[in-house]
Design brief:
With about 650 residues, the protein is of the alpha/beta class. It is built from 14 helices and 31 strands. About 50% of the residues are buried.
Length: about 650
């Protein structure tokens, strides 16, 4: 085997992978081969989780655990735990050649044993107890120990895994439900505790199916010391948080969603990590994972450390983490957090607070290389998945292949659409005519990337209020505006992402210490939004015109873009077949527009397939009685025209009538 080409052990089916005790050679042998050390040190090892960390095995007929940790700046590393009285002299590891890895086998240890590494820096001055960077399980915070564990699990998602390429493709409907596991649903009768992985699994799967979502995206489940960080301050890049159960419990959650036909996307944070003493920071008495210079290695916004992407072993660590969640946990995609902060050396920094690259520019060349390599490896080994970038700037070709100069992501969040749309919707309708360009500007750039339209958790925290509370007007108008916003989102070109809470039209800002307000569904306005969202998801899935060409300019055509005085827009969404077409028309004022004419490419009967003002959604019931006929009079560059009633603060979707 060429050491530069590690064997691909990807499994396409749903079978489990045994990781329980294996037989290894004599007591002096290492589980790390020369190829492992070579690939690790050159930044190309993609499955370090199979070698580093703790692994149960049998050596010379004796069961125990092997430990391996990277600490090249250490003078000595030992394993400590209750099994040796936390004595740093009892189980000292051995350095492996010049790799910087310390390794050793301890007999008699079993699954569930808690341990840490005691690291002594050179000179003996720096002494610290560290959690294992490659631990697959950890004590529940605030405890910080690592736990010897296996990843045995019998998967039951073979059907999903065999067919998920279709569900994850760019021409498939992708409606993503973003979820924070700790606050989606709580148990008020049990001290307001969060549901564990196994408790939430059937409930979340049933809700996602009932609402019509195609995917669930989980805010970071990787172990994190501070619950209030929502997982974005990660210490355990290979361990799902133990707050909600064991690794197998988390596998059960993914498995349950897959069996229900729901894809699972994991939020992943390679941009920074916290400064907690037990974590990666200053790991061996040196700046090992982070840059030493704070102008490169410390993030001023999040008070956290920035990975040194130019260090080979750090790249191996992060690449292995990315592939691990797809390999061992069957993740269908990774949403990569804060990509913009990785790309720019001057991100959130003033002049003099950053170091230019070797060409004098502000681009982080090492981070760019890492992101490209990450995407290449994910799509090489797991071509039926997606990577999604949260990238908030105008950086070019984020979602274009590496071989044409792109970063290689499958999708990019359209933050510009989100900001423009929420700004527009927050205006009183009487003033919206002065902000019409916030609706139309997006189509100038809409197909420069493969976009996902996000209304995420970031928009309902830190005093921003809920989506419902952002809407202007009285109670009726706020609910109508929210329904209008959702219809506009689902008719636009691009995949969709909605944070939990909009499905109950929550009025309060998201609070990670509280459950969603599920009781709101007992009230008509909230129930109306919930029903509309179900119908939008259904239409988005069923109508090829609304998803098939989501990332292609052939899938969109303006009909009425310039009616700022009446705050009306209309456009066509198209599928690959000529007959797959949907007309979406919007009235962003509370005044109904009667006899409003729009051009259409097809004559004859058009059926109204959705109206956000329908009474079942708690609207006023104004619309087009289900059917309208297009006459042969040209308009808007089209050979036919429809005469419509555009409901107040409403959207209407129509398609050419189909024979029953």
């Amino acid at each position: 085997m060429n050491p530069r080409e590690p064997k691909d052990r990807t499994k396409k089916g749903g079978e489990g992978r045994a990781t329980a005790p294996r037989d290894d050679a004599g007591p002096s042998s290492s589980v790390l081969s020369k190829d492992d050390l070579y690939l690790f040190n050159e930044g190309s090892h993609l499955r370090l989780y199979e070698k580093l960390g703790s692994h149960l095995l049998t050596r010379n007929g004796e069961s125990g655990a092997n430990f391996a940790v990277w600490a090249p700046g250490a003078e000595r590393v030992s394993v400590i735990g209750g099994f040796n009285g936390w004595n740093p002299e009892a189980n000292v590891l051995q350095a492996q050649e010049n790799s910087g890895i310390w390794e050793g086998f301890i007999p008699g240890l079993e699954k569930g044993t808690i341990y840490k590494y005691h690291v002594v820096g050179r000179g003996g001055v720096h002494r610290v107890d560290k959690a294992d960077p490659f631990a697959v399980h950890a004590e529940t915070p605030p405890k910080t120990g690592s736990i010897i564990w296996d990843l045995d699990y019998s998967w039951n998602d073979a059907d999903w895994m065999a067919s998920r390429a279709t569900a994850n493709s760019l021409d498939a409907p992708m409606s993503i439900y973003e979820v924070h596991l700790g606050s989606w649903m709580r148990m008020p009768e049990d001290h307001n505790r969060s549901l564990n992985y196994r408790e939430i699994a059937p409930k979340l799967a049933a809700h996602a199916v009932e609402m019509g979502f195609t995917h669930v995206e989980l805010l970071p489940v990787m172990e994190h010391p501070f619950y209030g960080s929502w997982g974005y301050q990660t210490t355990g890049y290979f361990a799902p948080t133990s707050r909600y159960g064991t690794p197998q419990d988390f596998m059960f959650l993914v498995d349950t969603l897959h069996q229900a036909g729901i894809g699972v996307i994991l939020d992943w944070v390679p941009s920074h990590f916290p400064s907690d003493e037990h974590g990666l920071a200053y790991f061996d008495g040196t700046h090992l994972f982070e840059h030493a210079d704070p102008r490169q290695g410390f993030h001023p916004d999040w008070q956290s450390f920035i990975f040194n992407y130019g260090r080979h072993e750090v790249r191996s660590f992060l690449l292995s983490s990315a592939l691990y969640w797809m390999d061992r946990y069957h993740a269908d995609g990774l949403r990569v957090d804060a990509v913009a902060s990785m790309l720019y050396l001057d991100y959130s920094r003033q002049e003099g607070e950053w170091i230019p690259n070797k060409y004098g520019g502000r681009e982080n060349l090492e981070a760019i290389d890492f992101l490209r390599r990450m995407n290449e490896e994910i799509y090489r080994h797991f071509p039926d998945t997606q990577t999604i970038a949260e990238e908030s700037t105008a950086w070019g070709m984020v979602s274009r292949p590496v071989y044409v100069g792109g970063l290689g992501f499958g999708l990019k969040w359209d933050m510009g659409w989100m900001h423009d749309t929420l700004d527009y919707m927050s205006h009183d309708p009487v003033h919206r005519k002065y902000h019409h360009d916030e609706l139309t500007f997006r189509m100038i750039y809409a197909f420069t990337e493969n976009f996902c339209l996000p209304l995420s958790h970031d928009e309902v925290v830190h005093g921003k209020g809920s989506l419902l509370s952002k809407m202007p007007g009285d109670d009726w108008q706020r609910f109508a505006n929210l329904r209008l916003l959702l219809a506009y989102m689902f008719s636009q070109a691009g995949k969709k992402l909605l944070f939990m809470g909009v499905d109950v039209a929550q009025g309060a800002e998201w609070d990670h210490e509280s459950s969603l307000e599920w009781h709101l569904l007992d009230y008509p306005g909230h129930r109306g939004v919930n029903l509309l969202l179900r119908d939008l998801n259904r239409l988005y899935r069923e109508e090829a015109a609304l998803h098939e060409l989501d990332v292609s300019p052939e899938g969109f055509e303006w009909i009425a873009a310039n009616d700022s005085q009446q705050s009306v827009i209309a456009y066509l969404r198209k599928g690959r077949k000529p007959e797959d077409v949907v007309l979406a028309a919007f009235n962003f004022t509370p005044l109904p527009r009667h006899s409003y004419q729009v051009g259409t490419p097809v004559g004859g009967k058009w059926e109204e397939i959705l109206n956000t003002d329908a009474q079942e959604y708690m609207g006023s019931g104004q619309g087009n009685l289900g059917l309208v006929e297009a006459g042969p009079l040209p308009l808007h560059g089209q050979p036919y025209r429809l005469t419509l009633t555009l409901p107040p603060l409403g959207a209407t979707f129509l398609r050419p009538a189909r024979e029953s």
